[in-house]
Each structure stands twice: as structure tokens, then as C-alpha cells.
Design brief:
The longest helix is centred in the middle third of the chain and has 30 residues. It is built from 18 helices and no strands. By secondary structure, the chain is mostly helical. It is globular.
Length: 371
């Protein structure tokens, strides 16, 4: 009854939006992802699961690369930077910028075209392909992982926060190589992520913390992280707030925007820990790494309670929710999955529509490039 009441409330709030055919594109894509995920969770043949996963990838890819330049509120700033790099005659500009990897991408594409929207589509394609590669390396179910990603404002992330999106997906892929013992590939991809967005430096804590071999030591590290970051948030945040108020991030300061995410992640991790309590703790298992990553992201979220901008750092760890959630669902018996599927689909839709309503990324209404 509670779910049905929530659906009726959210339906009344979104009625005007749903009447807009350009918003309907998002809804249709979400429903397609739900169908693909449901089918994929209930089939056993690997070939069929791979096909459904590719369909989910294609849905997300097409919406990202076929969008108009108005879909994404930060795109005008990225366009200005693209034009600045393209029009610069001094190659040394590549080494004067801290995020020189992103500058290099602008420079290379700008050498062939002066159209920023060509760059935008190529960049979007690169992001979604990297996400697909990372999911295939780590997730038990590709379709469900894409659904979980989109449910958490994935379209807003890829279409608006361009630099960090690419950096997060590089870290996601890098961790899969670290798990397989290919440390040089992990370091290379992690460094590449840092050249795209400097916040990707936090990805280097994966090895000392997330990849802790002993469960008790990992719990100790998480506990000390909670305590240490809580103290840091109390002591250092006033100084950081004063620093960032001089910049353009003042709307993100002290907003407490991380409280909802903190609560959701806490509840989900407690549920996951209970459900998987009999599973072996091993860093060779993707579900262990995903749980560890989300747990450490929760520790970082403590600081974001008073400094919302730091919520961005959690993205490098909470991205593994797209690995953990499919594993938790598949841990249920098949008849339980079928029984709970309607409720899970409704909750996923509500979460998705909440992000669409707030539209913090400026992606509503959706428009194709030819409109």
C-alpha cells in the first residue's frame, strides 16, 4: 500500500512532465532498461544475457550521442573551453593545464573540426563505451547494472558532468585490472583518470583499503575512516567553506545534499551485509570489492553531510553499486526475484523520476540534435 500511495503521489507531481513528448524519451528508455534487466535476471544462457546487456548499452548510448547541445547545463562552459583550446596556436597549452588529459582530447578533436557538438558526441560515446567495458568486467548482470546506473541520475552524470564521468568510468575499469593482478594497467588507467579530473586521485586508495585481504582489518580501516573523516569534517570544513565561497561552488557548500544519499547507502549496505553474511570474504570476488567500495564511499559521505561538494568524491566508490545491486538481486531465489520485481521496478522508477524532476543537470526536456 505504501508503494502504491507513493506511486500516486509521484504520478500527480510528474503528470505535466510526462505529457511532454521530449520527457517521454527518458521514460521510454527507462522502461526498456527495466524490461531488459527483468529478462536478463531470469535467463541462464550467457549468450542471451550478453545480447540483453548490449541492448541496454545501446539504449543509453543512443540517448547520449543523439542529444542536442542544450541537454546538459554545463555544456556551454565545456564549449568555451573547447574553443579556447582549439584556437590556441601554442602547443604548450597542453602542459599548462592541470587536467591535461582532457585538454589533449579537446586539442586532438579540435584539430579536425571546429564543431564542439562533434566533440560532445565523440566524448559521450567514449564515456558510455568505457562504462560498458567496466560493467562487463565486474558485473554479474550487465542489463541490471545499466538500469541501476540510470536510476541514479546516470543520464545527468554523463550528459552534464563530462570530465568526472570519464574519470569515474576509467577508475571502474582500472579496478577490474587490479583485481586480476594487472597492477600496471590499474596504475595507467588511474593516472589517465587523474589527467581528466583531479578528484580521481581518490581512486588510488582502492589498493590499501578496498583490496584489504582480511575482513577484520578492513572493518577496522572503515571504522577509523569514519572517525577520522568525521573529525576532519568538524575541524576542517569551516576553512574549506571559506575557501570555496570565493569560487563558483557556493551553492554546493554546506547544503547538506549528502544526507539522503548517506541514509540510502547505509540502509542498503546493512541489507546487503545481512543477505550476504554467509558468503566468503575475498578480494577475488567482485561482490566483496563492490561492498568494500560502497562502504568506504559511505565514510567519505560523512564529510559531505556538511560540505555537499564532496559528494562528488563518493562517485568513485558508489559507482560500484551498479555491481553490488545485481549481485544482491541474483542472490535471491528465482521465485523471490519474480515476486519482488514489481516493487523493485516501482521504487527504481520513483528514484529515477525524482532526479528527473529536480533536473539539477539541465537535461530536461530531452531534444534530439536534429530538432
Amino acid at each position: 500500500m505504501a508503494v502504491w500511495h507513493g506511486f500516486k503521489v509521484i504520478r500527480s507531481v510528474h503528470l505535466d512532465i510526462l505529457r511532454n513528448e521530449r520527457m517521454t524519451i527518458y521514460v521510454i528508455s527507462f522502461l526498456l532498461l527495466v524490461i531488459f534487466a527483468f529478462l536478463s535476471l531470469n535467463v541462464t544462457e550467457k549468450r542471451l544475457k550478453d545480447i540483453l546487456g548490449f541492448f541496454s548499452f545501446s539504449v543509453v548510448l543512443f540517448l547520449v550521442i543523439l542529444r542536442k547541445g542544450t541537454v546538459g547545463c554545463d555544456l556551454p562552459q565545456y564549449k568555451l573551453y573547447f574553443d579556447f583550446v582549439r584556437e590556441s596556436s601554442d602547443v604548450r597549452i597542453l602542459f599548462l593545464q592541470f587536467d591535461y588529459g582532457y585538454t589533449l582530447l579537446n586539442y586532438l578533436v579540435g584539430a579536425f573540426t571546429d564543431d564542439f557538438y562533434v566533440f560532445m558526441r565523440l566524448y559521450g560515446m567514449m564515456c558510455v563505451i568505457l562504462l560498458y567495458a567496466g560493467i562487463r568486467c565486474s558485473s554479474l548482470d550487465v542489463s541490471t547494472s545499466f538500469l541501476v546506473f540510470i536510476m541514479q541520475d546516470g543520464y545527468g552524470f554523463v550528459c552534464c558532468i563530462l570530465r568526472q564521468a570519464l574519470a569515474v568510468f576509467l577508475v571502474l575499469l582500472a579496478v577490474s585490472y587490479l583485481k586480476n593482478g594487472k597492477k600496471w594497467l590499474w596504475r595507467g588507467l588511474s593516472l589517465a583518470a587523474v589527467t581528466i579530473h583531479s578528484t580521481a586521485l581518490v581512486g588510488f586508495v582502492y589498493r590499501p583499503i578496498i583490496f584489504e585481504k582480511k575482513k577484520k582489518i578492513f572493518i577496522f580501516k572503515i571504522f577509523t575512516s569514519f572517525v577520522g573523516l568525521s573529525v576532519m569534517a568538524f575541524v576542517a570544513m569551516p576553512l574549506i567553506v571559506n575557501l570555496y565561497k570565493r569560487n563558483d561552488y557556493s551553492n554546493d557548500i554546506g547544503g547538506g545534499g549528502g544526507r539522503t544519499l548517506f541514509l540510502i547507502v547505509s540502509v542498503f549496505l546493512c541489507f546487503s551485509a545481512y543477505l550476504l553474511r554467509k558468503k566468503e570474504y575475498s578480494i577475488k570476488n567482485n561482490h566483496t570489492l563492490a561492498f568494500n567500495a560502497c562502504a568506504f564511499g559511505l565514510a567519505i559521505q560523512v564529510m559531505a553531510l556538511n560540505f555537499s561538494l564532496l559528494t562528488r568524491l563518493t562517485k568513485y566508490f558508489w559507482i560500484f553499486s551498479i555491481v553490488l545491486i545485481p549481485y544482491v538481486i541474483l542472490h535471491l531465489k528465482k521465485n523471490e526475484r519474480i515476486l519482488y520485481s514489481p516493487a523493485m521496478a516501482v521504487l527504481a522508477f520513483l528514484w529515477f523520476m525524482q532526479h528527473m524532476t529536480k533536473d539539477l543537470s539541465g537535461i530536461v526536456p530531452y531534444q534530439f540534435f536534429f530538432q
